Amino acid sequence: MRFKKWTAALMCAALSSGALAACGDDEESAGGGNASTSAAPPAEDKTPKGDPIVVGAICSCSGAQAAVLSEIKEVNEAWAKSVNAKGGINGHPVKMIVKDDAGEPAKALAAAKELVEKDKVVAFVGMFSLAEAAWEKYVSGKGIPVVGGLSISPPFLSNPDWFPSGSNQVTATFGTMQSAKDAGKKSVGVLYCAESPVCAQLDPLAKGAAQVVGGLAYKSGKVSGSAPNYTAPCLSMKSAGVDALYAASNSSVVQRLINDCAKQGYKPLSIGSINTVGSDWFDNPNLEGAVSVSSNANYTDESVPGVKEYMDAIDQYVPGLREKDGYGSNYLQPWAGGKLFEAAAEAGKFTPKSTPEDIKAGLYQLKDETLDGLMSPTTFTKGKPTFVPCYFGTKIEGGKLVSTDGGKPKCLTPEQVKTLTAGLS
Length: 425
Known about the structure:
By secondary structure, the protein is α/β, with parallel strands linked by helices. The chain is 37% helix and 16% strand. The chain folds into 2 domains: 3-166 and 302-382, Response regulator (Rossmann fold), CATH 3.40.50.2300; 170-294 and 392-424, Rossmann fold. Strands 7, 8, 9, 10, 11, 12, 13 and 14 form an 8-stranded mixed sheet that branches. A 3-stranded mixed sheet has the order 1-3-2.
Protein backbone atom coordinates (compact mmCIF):
# COMPACT_ATOMS: atom_id res chain seq x y z
CA MET A 1 0.00 0.00 0.00
CA ARG A 2 1.03 3.60 -0.55
CA PHE A 3 0.02 4.65 2.96
CA LYS A 4 3.66 5.14 3.97
CA LYS A 5 4.30 7.93 1.45
CA TRP A 6 1.13 9.82 2.29
CA THR A 7 1.46 9.56 6.04
CA ALA A 8 5.13 10.51 5.89
CA ALA A 9 4.14 13.61 3.95
CA LEU A 10 1.64 14.62 6.58
CA MET A 11 4.05 13.99 9.43
CA CYS A 12 6.49 16.29 7.64
CA ALA A 13 3.85 19.00 7.29
CA ALA A 14 2.16 18.60 10.65
CA LEU A 15 5.08 19.09 13.00
CA SER A 16 6.22 22.64 13.54
CA SER A 17 9.92 23.18 12.76
CA GLY A 18 12.15 25.45 14.80
CA ALA A 19 15.53 26.07 16.34
CA LEU A 20 17.57 23.07 17.42
CA ALA A 21 17.53 22.12 21.05
CA ALA A 22 19.01 19.00 22.59
CA CYS A 23 17.13 16.71 24.94
CA GLY A 24 20.32 15.86 26.77
CA ASP A 25 22.05 12.51 27.02
CA ASP A 26 20.07 9.28 26.87
CA GLU A 27 19.09 8.27 30.36
CA GLU A 28 17.41 5.44 32.17
CA SER A 29 14.50 6.27 34.43
CA ALA A 30 13.07 3.82 36.92
CA GLY A 31 10.35 6.41 37.46
CA GLY A 32 10.29 5.82 41.17
CA GLY A 33 12.68 8.48 42.42
CA ASN A 34 12.20 11.58 44.51
CA ALA A 35 9.37 13.05 42.39
CA SER A 36 7.17 10.00 42.72
CA THR A 37 7.37 9.79 46.49
CA SER A 38 5.75 13.24 46.80
CA ALA A 39 2.64 11.91 45.05
CA ALA A 40 1.90 9.36 47.78
CA PRO A 41 0.49 10.16 51.24
CA PRO A 42 3.31 10.61 53.76
CA ALA A 43 2.06 7.76 55.92
CA GLU A 44 1.89 5.25 53.09
CA ASP A 45 4.85 4.36 50.89
CA LYS A 46 3.44 2.96 47.65
CA THR A 47 6.78 2.79 45.85
CA PRO A 48 6.99 -0.69 44.34
CA LYS A 49 10.00 -2.85 45.08
CA GLY A 50 11.79 -5.66 43.29
CA ASP A 51 12.67 -6.32 39.68
CA PRO A 52 11.19 -3.85 37.20
CA ILE A 53 9.16 -4.29 34.04
CA VAL A 54 11.50 -2.73 31.47
CA VAL A 55 10.12 -0.77 28.53
CA GLY A 56 11.73 1.65 26.10
CA ALA A 57 10.94 4.56 23.84
CA ILE A 58 12.63 6.39 20.98
CA CYS A 59 11.97 10.09 20.49
CA SER A 60 13.20 12.69 18.01
CA CYS A 61 13.53 15.13 20.87
CA SER A 62 16.49 17.00 19.41
CA GLY A 63 17.08 17.85 15.78
CA ALA A 64 14.89 19.76 13.34
CA GLN A 65 11.69 19.41 15.39
CA ALA A 66 13.18 20.23 18.79
CA ALA A 67 11.05 23.36 19.16
CA VAL A 68 7.95 21.21 19.64
CA LEU A 69 9.40 17.86 20.76
CA SER A 70 12.29 18.66 23.08
CA GLU A 71 10.58 17.39 26.23
CA ILE A 72 8.85 14.29 24.87
CA LYS A 73 11.41 12.26 26.85
CA GLU A 74 10.30 13.90 30.08
CA VAL A 75 6.67 13.01 29.31
CA ASN A 76 7.59 9.36 28.78
CA GLU A 77 9.34 9.41 32.13
CA ALA A 78 6.47 11.28 33.79
CA TRP A 79 4.18 8.40 32.85
CA ALA A 80 6.55 5.91 34.50
CA LYS A 81 6.85 8.05 37.61
CA SER A 82 3.08 8.40 37.89
CA VAL A 83 2.63 4.64 37.56
CA ASN A 84 5.21 3.91 40.25
CA ALA A 85 3.72 6.54 42.55
CA LYS A 86 0.49 4.52 42.46
CA GLY A 87 2.22 1.24 43.28
CA GLY A 88 3.61 0.22 39.90
CA ILE A 89 2.26 -2.34 37.47
CA ASN A 90 0.69 -5.23 39.35
CA GLY A 91 2.97 -4.35 42.27
CA HIS A 92 6.14 -4.17 40.17
CA PRO A 93 8.04 -1.00 39.25
CA VAL A 94 8.14 0.08 35.62
CA LYS A 95 11.48 1.18 34.21
CA MET A 96 11.29 3.51 31.21
CA ILE A 97 14.44 3.93 29.09
CA VAL A 98 14.27 6.70 26.49
CA LYS A 99 16.68 7.19 23.58
CA ASP A 100 16.85 10.34 21.45
CA ASP A 101 17.51 9.69 17.74
CA ALA A 102 17.51 13.41 16.75
CA GLY A 103 15.45 12.35 13.75
CA GLU A 104 18.47 10.62 12.20
CA PRO A 105 17.97 7.09 10.78
CA ALA A 106 21.39 5.74 11.81
CA LYS A 107 20.93 6.95 15.39
CA ALA A 108 17.40 5.57 15.44
CA LEU A 109 18.45 2.07 14.42
CA ALA A 110 21.34 2.09 16.89
CA ALA A 111 18.97 3.19 19.67
CA ALA A 112 16.50 0.41 18.84
CA LYS A 113 19.24 -2.23 18.88
CA GLU A 114 20.54 -1.02 22.23
CA LEU A 115 17.08 -1.06 23.78
CA VAL A 116 16.44 -4.59 22.55
CA GLU A 117 19.84 -6.22 22.93
CA LYS A 118 21.33 -4.41 25.93
CA ASP A 119 18.37 -3.15 27.91
CA LYS A 120 16.09 -6.12 27.15
CA VAL A 121 12.91 -4.09 26.82
CA VAL A 122 9.69 -6.06 26.41
CA ALA A 123 7.97 -3.27 24.48
CA PHE A 124 8.46 0.17 22.97
CA VAL A 125 5.97 2.46 24.69
CA GLY A 126 4.91 5.97 23.67
CA MET A 127 7.00 6.04 20.49
CA PHE A 128 7.74 9.48 19.02
CA SER A 129 10.52 8.84 16.52
CA LEU A 130 10.41 10.62 13.17
CA ALA A 131 12.92 8.08 11.82
CA GLU A 132 10.89 4.98 12.61
CA ALA A 133 11.34 3.60 9.10
CA ALA A 134 14.98 2.89 9.98
CA TRP A 135 14.13 0.50 12.83
CA GLU A 136 10.63 -0.81 12.17
CA LYS A 137 11.75 -4.04 10.46
CA TYR A 138 14.47 -4.73 13.04
CA VAL A 139 12.08 -4.43 15.98
CA SER A 140 9.36 -6.44 14.25
CA GLY A 141 11.91 -9.14 13.47
CA LYS A 142 12.62 -9.39 17.18
CA GLY A 143 8.92 -9.70 17.95
CA ILE A 144 8.88 -6.56 20.12
CA PRO A 145 5.54 -4.70 20.11
CA VAL A 146 5.34 -0.93 19.72
CA VAL A 147 2.62 0.40 22.01
CA GLY A 148 1.18 3.78 21.16
CA GLY A 149 2.65 7.21 20.66
CA LEU A 150 2.74 9.07 17.35
CA SER A 151 -0.27 7.35 15.83
CA ILE A 152 0.06 9.08 12.45
CA SER A 153 3.33 7.19 11.96
CA PRO A 154 2.99 4.86 8.92
CA PRO A 155 3.71 1.51 10.67
CA PHE A 156 0.64 1.94 12.88
CA LEU A 157 -1.40 1.48 9.69
CA SER A 158 0.43 -1.49 8.24
CA ASN A 159 2.26 -3.42 10.98
CA PRO A 160 0.23 -5.77 13.23
CA ASP A 161 2.85 -5.46 15.99
CA TRP A 162 2.33 -1.67 16.21
CA PHE A 163 -0.62 -0.86 18.48
CA PRO A 164 -1.97 2.71 18.03
CA SER A 165 -3.17 4.81 20.95
CA GLY A 166 -5.01 7.19 18.60
CA SER A 167 -6.26 7.52 15.06
CA ASN A 168 -4.10 7.38 11.94
CA GLN A 169 -3.42 10.14 9.44
CA VAL A 170 -5.79 8.73 6.81
CA THR A 171 -8.68 9.00 9.28
CA ALA A 172 -7.53 12.45 10.39
CA THR A 173 -7.40 13.72 6.81
CA PHE A 174 -10.93 12.46 6.20
CA GLY A 175 -11.95 14.20 9.42
CA THR A 176 -10.42 17.45 8.20
CA MET A 177 -12.50 17.33 5.02
CA GLN A 178 -15.60 16.33 6.98
CA SER A 179 -15.12 19.27 9.36
CA ALA A 180 -15.31 21.64 6.39
CA LYS A 181 -18.56 20.09 5.22
CA ASP A 182 -19.99 20.12 8.75
CA ALA A 183 -19.28 23.85 8.88
CA GLY A 184 -21.35 24.35 5.73
CA LYS A 185 -18.40 24.94 3.42
CA LYS A 186 -18.52 24.01 -0.26
CA SER A 187 -14.93 24.19 -1.48
CA VAL A 188 -11.72 23.02 0.17
CA GLY A 189 -8.27 24.30 -0.68
CA VAL A 190 -5.05 22.53 0.34
CA LEU A 191 -1.70 24.34 0.35
CA TYR A 192 1.16 21.95 1.11
CA CYS A 193 4.83 22.63 1.80
CA ALA A 194 7.08 23.10 -1.24
CA GLU A 195 10.33 22.17 0.50
CA SER A 196 10.11 18.43 -0.11
CA PRO A 197 8.58 16.29 -2.89
CA VAL A 198 7.19 14.10 -0.12
CA CYS A 199 4.78 16.88 0.87
CA ALA A 200 3.12 16.66 -2.54
CA GLN A 201 1.88 13.19 -1.57
CA LEU A 202 -0.68 14.93 0.65
CA ASP A 203 -2.54 16.14 -2.43
CA PRO A 204 -4.02 12.80 -3.62
CA LEU A 205 -4.81 11.72 -0.05
CA ALA A 206 -6.69 14.94 0.72
CA LYS A 207 -8.42 14.91 -2.66
CA GLY A 208 -9.51 11.31 -2.14
CA ALA A 209 -10.80 12.13 1.34
CA ALA A 210 -12.78 15.10 -0.01
CA GLN A 211 -14.36 12.83 -2.62
CA VAL A 212 -15.35 10.27 0.00
CA VAL A 213 -16.90 13.01 2.16
CA GLY A 214 -18.76 14.27 -0.91
CA GLY A 215 -20.15 17.67 -1.83
CA LEU A 216 -16.81 19.47 -1.74
CA ALA A 217 -14.96 21.13 -4.59
CA TYR A 218 -11.20 20.73 -4.31
CA LYS A 219 -8.17 22.86 -5.20
CA SER A 220 -4.52 22.50 -4.19
CA GLY A 221 -1.15 24.20 -4.49
CA LYS A 222 2.26 24.65 -2.88
CA VAL A 223 3.64 27.19 -0.40
CA SER A 224 7.23 27.75 0.68
CA GLY A 225 8.13 28.44 4.27
CA SER A 226 10.69 31.01 3.11
CA ALA A 227 8.29 32.99 0.91
CA PRO A 228 8.24 36.75 1.74
CA ASN A 229 4.45 36.75 1.57
CA TYR A 230 1.52 34.57 0.53
CA THR A 231 -0.48 37.06 -1.51
CA ALA A 232 -0.44 34.95 -4.68
CA PRO A 233 -1.74 31.66 -3.19
CA CYS A 234 -4.33 33.55 -1.15
CA LEU A 235 -5.69 35.32 -4.23
CA SER A 236 -5.63 32.05 -6.18
CA MET A 237 -7.74 30.31 -3.55
CA LYS A 238 -10.02 33.31 -3.23
CA SER A 239 -10.69 33.48 -6.97
CA ALA A 240 -11.47 29.73 -6.98
CA GLY A 241 -14.15 30.25 -4.35
CA VAL A 242 -12.36 28.19 -1.68
CA ASP A 243 -14.11 28.78 1.64
CA ALA A 244 -12.19 26.24 3.79
CA LEU A 245 -8.39 26.33 3.66
CA TYR A 246 -6.07 23.56 4.85
CA ALA A 247 -2.53 24.93 5.16
CA ALA A 248 -0.35 21.86 5.60
CA SER A 249 2.85 23.38 6.91
CA ASN A 250 4.34 24.26 10.26
CA SER A 251 2.54 26.44 12.76
CA SER A 252 4.34 29.70 11.98
CA VAL A 253 3.83 29.34 8.21
CA VAL A 254 0.13 28.67 8.70
CA GLN A 255 -0.21 31.83 10.77
CA ARG A 256 1.64 33.98 8.25
CA LEU A 257 -0.43 32.54 5.43
CA ILE A 258 -3.76 33.13 7.16
CA ASN A 259 -2.70 36.66 8.14
CA ASP A 260 -1.66 37.49 4.56
CA CYS A 261 -4.95 36.15 3.25
CA ALA A 262 -6.81 38.40 5.69
CA LYS A 263 -4.91 41.40 4.31
CA GLN A 264 -6.39 40.57 0.91
CA GLY A 265 -9.88 40.54 2.36
CA TYR A 266 -9.94 36.76 2.15
CA LYS A 267 -10.96 34.96 5.34
CA PRO A 268 -11.70 31.28 4.70
CA LEU A 269 -12.32 28.85 7.52
CA SER A 270 -8.96 27.46 8.62
CA ILE A 271 -9.05 23.65 8.81
CA GLY A 272 -6.29 21.14 9.51
CA SER A 273 -4.44 18.96 11.97
CA ILE A 274 -4.18 19.69 15.70
CA ASN A 275 -0.42 19.05 15.37
CA THR A 276 0.00 22.37 13.57
CA VAL A 277 -1.89 24.38 16.18
CA GLY A 278 0.32 26.54 18.38
CA SER A 279 -0.66 28.27 21.60
CA ASP A 280 -0.06 31.63 19.93
CA TRP A 281 -2.94 30.85 17.57
CA PHE A 282 -5.47 31.38 20.33
CA ASP A 283 -4.95 35.16 20.43
CA ASN A 284 -4.92 35.63 16.64
CA PRO A 285 -8.29 37.05 15.52
CA ASN A 286 -7.73 35.69 12.01
CA LEU A 287 -7.74 32.16 13.46
CA GLU A 288 -10.85 32.57 15.57
CA GLY A 289 -13.16 29.73 14.62
CA ALA A 290 -10.39 27.58 13.15
CA VAL A 291 -11.22 23.88 13.34
CA SER A 292 -8.74 21.04 13.64
CA VAL A 293 -8.78 17.27 13.87
CA SER A 294 -6.89 15.29 16.49
CA SER A 295 -5.86 11.64 16.86
CA ASN A 296 -6.61 11.91 20.58
CA ALA A 297 -8.92 13.93 22.77
CA ASN A 298 -8.40 17.69 23.03
CA TYR A 299 -5.23 18.04 25.09
CA THR A 300 -6.64 21.10 26.91
CA ASP A 301 -10.04 19.63 27.83
CA GLU A 302 -10.03 18.92 31.58
CA SER A 303 -13.55 17.50 31.40
CA VAL A 304 -12.07 14.35 29.84
CA PRO A 305 -10.83 12.21 32.77
CA GLY A 306 -7.83 10.89 30.86
CA VAL A 307 -6.76 14.40 29.86
CA LYS A 308 -7.18 15.69 33.42
CA GLU A 309 -4.94 12.90 34.74
CA TYR A 310 -2.35 13.74 32.08
CA MET A 311 -2.37 17.46 32.89
CA ASP A 312 -2.00 16.83 36.62
CA ALA A 313 0.94 14.48 36.04
CA ILE A 314 2.67 16.92 33.69
CA ASP A 315 2.29 19.74 36.20
CA GLN A 316 3.83 17.54 38.89
CA TYR A 317 6.65 15.84 37.00
CA VAL A 318 7.43 18.31 34.17
CA PRO A 319 6.53 21.64 35.81
CA GLY A 320 6.26 24.60 33.45
CA LEU A 321 5.90 22.51 30.29
CA ARG A 322 2.32 23.53 29.61
CA GLU A 323 3.31 27.21 29.69
CA LYS A 324 6.02 26.90 27.03
CA ASP A 325 5.56 28.15 23.46
CA GLY A 326 6.33 24.75 21.93
CA TYR A 327 3.75 22.92 24.03
CA GLY A 328 0.90 21.30 22.11
CA SER A 329 -0.94 18.11 21.34
CA ASN A 330 2.31 16.25 20.53
CA TYR A 331 3.01 15.85 24.24
CA LEU A 332 -0.25 14.03 24.94
CA GLN A 333 0.57 11.25 22.48
CA PRO A 334 3.49 9.53 24.28
CA TRP A 335 1.44 9.70 27.47
CA ALA A 336 -1.45 7.96 25.70
CA GLY A 337 0.97 5.22 24.67
CA GLY A 338 1.95 4.74 28.28
CA LYS A 339 -1.67 4.53 29.37
CA LEU A 340 -2.33 1.93 26.66
CA PHE A 341 0.51 -0.21 28.01
CA GLU A 342 -0.85 0.28 31.51
CA ALA A 343 -4.31 -0.91 30.47
CA ALA A 344 -2.85 -3.96 28.73
CA ALA A 345 -0.69 -4.69 31.79
CA GLU A 346 -3.77 -4.82 34.00
CA ALA A 347 -5.62 -7.05 31.56
CA GLY A 348 -2.66 -9.35 30.99
CA LYS A 349 -1.30 -9.25 34.56
CA PHE A 350 2.23 -8.34 33.43
CA THR A 351 5.23 -9.13 35.64
CA PRO A 352 9.00 -8.68 35.20
CA LYS A 353 9.00 -12.16 33.63
CA SER A 354 6.45 -11.23 30.97
CA THR A 355 7.65 -11.64 27.40
CA PRO A 356 6.89 -9.52 24.32
CA GLU A 357 4.31 -12.14 23.37
CA ASP A 358 2.67 -11.70 26.77
CA ILE A 359 2.50 -7.95 26.12
CA LYS A 360 0.70 -8.55 22.83
CA ALA A 361 -1.67 -11.01 24.50
CA GLY A 362 -2.59 -8.35 27.06
CA LEU A 363 -3.31 -5.86 24.28
CA TYR A 364 -5.56 -8.37 22.49
CA GLN A 365 -7.66 -8.62 25.66
CA LEU A 366 -8.65 -4.95 25.47
CA LYS A 367 -12.09 -4.37 23.98
CA ASP A 368 -13.30 -0.92 22.92
CA GLU A 369 -10.61 0.62 25.14
CA THR A 370 -10.78 4.43 25.47
CA LEU A 371 -8.14 5.13 28.15
CA ASP A 372 -10.64 7.27 30.08
CA GLY A 373 -11.50 9.24 26.98
CA LEU A 374 -7.99 9.76 25.59
CA MET A 375 -8.73 7.75 22.44
CA SER A 376 -11.75 6.46 20.57
CA PRO A 377 -12.92 2.90 21.39
CA THR A 378 -10.23 0.56 20.09
CA THR A 379 -9.90 -3.21 19.85
CA PHE A 380 -6.82 -5.07 18.59
CA THR A 381 -6.96 -8.26 16.52
CA LYS A 382 -4.11 -10.74 16.49
CA GLY A 383 -2.13 -10.71 13.27
CA LYS A 384 -3.91 -7.70 11.77
CA PRO A 385 -2.95 -3.99 11.62
CA THR A 386 -5.35 -1.73 13.50
CA PHE A 387 -7.24 0.89 11.49
CA VAL A 388 -8.77 3.37 13.94
CA PRO A 389 -11.71 4.98 12.08
CA CYS A 390 -12.53 7.72 14.60
CA TYR A 391 -11.13 11.19 15.28
CA PHE A 392 -11.67 14.11 17.65
CA GLY A 393 -12.62 17.65 16.66
CA THR A 394 -11.50 20.96 18.17
CA LYS A 395 -12.22 24.62 17.52
CA ILE A 396 -10.63 27.91 18.55
CA GLU A 397 -13.34 29.88 20.26
CA GLY A 398 -12.94 32.94 22.46
CA GLY A 399 -9.17 32.49 22.65
CA LYS A 400 -9.41 28.86 23.76
CA LEU A 401 -9.18 25.44 22.15
CA VAL A 402 -12.57 23.85 22.76
CA SER A 403 -13.78 20.34 21.99
CA THR A 404 -16.51 19.89 19.41
CA ASP A 405 -19.18 17.18 19.47
CA GLY A 406 -19.11 17.25 23.26
CA GLY A 407 -15.57 15.91 23.28
CA LYS A 408 -16.75 12.63 21.75
CA PRO A 409 -15.06 11.09 18.72
CA LYS A 410 -16.64 11.04 15.27
CA CYS A 411 -16.23 7.92 13.17
CA LEU A 412 -16.16 6.95 9.53
CA THR A 413 -18.73 4.42 8.42
CA PRO A 414 -17.47 0.96 7.36
CA GLU A 415 -18.30 1.89 3.77
CA GLN A 416 -16.29 5.12 4.00
CA VAL A 417 -13.31 3.21 5.38
CA LYS A 418 -13.55 0.67 2.58
CA THR A 419 -13.82 3.31 -0.14
CA LEU A 420 -11.06 5.50 1.23
CA THR A 421 -8.54 2.74 1.80
CA ALA A 422 -9.32 1.07 -1.55
CA GLY A 423 -8.55 4.32 -3.29
CA LEU A 424 -5.15 4.52 -1.64
CA SER A 425 -3.97 0.95 -2.13
